[in-house]
Design goal:
Helix content: 40-55%
Bound molecules: flavin-adenine dinucleotide
Number of helices: 13
Oligomer: single chain
Strand content: 5-15%
Distance between the termini: 37 Å
Length: 398
């Protein structure tokens, strides 16, 4: 049955109450136990968090890019592991289906992803194929109407608990690079697909990340996203392009939270007979952070609106991801500095967030990969062409 869209501001206030009253109070417990309680996951389902970006006809929230970015900036004010629990379903784990799935595939899988009864994951990275994902060597050998997959995926968010895997494999054995790759939809329980235990990692405890192992995993050809082999890398890039804006929004939330925490700490922590917030060098830390939060927020929303108008945002999405993730890490570093020695000792928000946000600069394209991408696209878009007028573009852009 088609969902009704909830007014955005009402939704944002409801989500803010949820993270403030139900997530932030248990952050320390989630960090220590490496687990999000099932009762909180159930609340996420009730709030529609698993399906925000999925079209309403499949039971999702039907949010556009800007609306989703605004949701991300709220929910990631709590420890990012909470958002990671449902984030695949409303991001990369459903986006391939939304952009390139057949009507049958969408009907089969999107309702379960939207209501959170199924957790999805996106399995692209391999031990030898990280920044250069086109180097992937997982094979999908054709056998009549079926394909037989063999390979190993690593660092896959939610793999240990996922019910649906979008797996990228090479269907053309002669191909190299981006060509000859296909995306397969594989359900847990399919013989030959297994997952490893969750890795021990620096931060985002409570968000399990693990391996996906494919050993003679036999699936029907109809499991290929879109039904046509060889389109998988294009599908991955289309999903990741939107995801970069999502992730940039996710970097803004923790930074907003940390500016707030720095302000509070500045008022209660005293040295030399006065609150440390009175010291101008401490004020500089919060002022610089606040400026950067606002700049990242503006860039993300501007890019999201441009995407919603149907314009190409490939370069801007990269700029959002690069700037917001680096910004968030600078803010986290300043928060540890302002908290002093306490900011280095476990069990406080600055120490936890510092560990949690570090990975933002690594996944979904490292900062270096985005720098290269931006420079390449600037050249391609004409920025280095003698007739290109950058001043005019900036004067007229929305
Ligand atoms: C917690 C976590 C969750 C993840 N979740 C997922 C997931 O759900 N699905 C998925 O498919 N993947 C996932 N990943 C994988 C992630 O996308 C990769 O780790 C990332 O793309 C980097 O690849 P790599 O780790 O192999 O590093 P490498 O590619 O080996 O990079 C190492 C260093 O070399 C630099 N480098 C590489 N190539 C170049 C170049 N051409 N020029 C300049 N510098 C370069 C990089 O910037 C980096 O600093 C996850 C990773 C982590 C840590």
């Amino acid at each position: 049955m088609e969902n009704q869209k909830q007014p955005l501001n009402e939704m944002l206030s409801e989500l803010y109450r949820f993270i403030k009253e139900e997530c932030i109070p248990i952050e320390e417990e989630v960090d220590r136990t490496d687990e999000i309680p099932e009762s909180v996951v159930q609340r996420m389902r009730e709030l529609g968090l698993f399906g925000h970006s999925i079209p309403t006809e499949y039971g999702g929230g039907g949010l556009n890019t800007e609306e989703l970015a605004r949701v991300n900036m709220v929910v990631s004010q709590a420890a990012p592991a909470f958002r990671a629990r449902f984030g695949g379903n409303t991001g990369i784990a459903s986006e391939s289906l939304i952009v390139d799935g057949t009507p049958e595939q969408r009907q089969q899988y999107l309702p379960g992803l939207a209501d959170g009864s199924v957790t999805g994951c996106f399995a692209l990275t391999e031990p030898g194929a990280g920044s250069d994902a086109t180097a992937l060597i997982t094979t999908a050998r054709r056998d009549g109407d079926h394909y037989v997959l063999n390979g190993r995926k690593c660092y896959i968010t939610n793999a240990p608990l996922a019910g649906l895997f979008t797996v990228f494999a090479r269907t053309d054995p002669e191909s190299q690079g981006a060509k000859g790759i296909s995306a397969f939809l594989i359900e847990r329980g399919t013989p030959g697909l297994s997952t490893g235990p969750a890795y021990r990692k620096m931060g985002q405890h409570g968000s399990p990340v693990g391996e996906v192992i494919l050993e003679d995993c036999r699936v029907h050809g109809s499991a290929i996203v879109g039904g046509v082999p060889g389109q998988g890398f294009r599908t991955a890039m289309r999903a990741l392009n939107k995801q970069r804006i999502n992730l940039a929004g996710l970097c803004v939330g923790p930074a907003i939270r940390l500016v707030d925490e720095m302000m509070k700490r500045g008022q209660v922590r005293e040295q030399s007979g006065q609150p440390i917030g009175n010291f101008q060098l401490m004020q500089q830390l919060v002022a610089d952070s606040n400026v950067e939060v606002h700049a990242a927020r503006a860039l993300v929303l501007q890019t999201a609106r441009k995407r919603d108008r149907g314009e190409d945002v490939t370069m801007e999405a990269s700029m959002c991801k690069l700037f917001a993730s680096e910004m968030c890490n600078r803010v986290a570093d300043r928060a540890v500095q302002l908290f002093g020695g306490g900011g280095y000792i476990a069990d406080n928000v600055a120490e936890r967030m510092y560990r949690d946000v570090r990975v933002f600069r690594l996944y979904e394209g490292t900062s270096q990969i985005h720098q290269l991408n931006i420079a390449k696209l600037m050249a391609r878009n004409g920025f280095d062409h003698p007739e290109y007028n950058m001043m005019h573009e900036f004067a007229t852009m929305q």
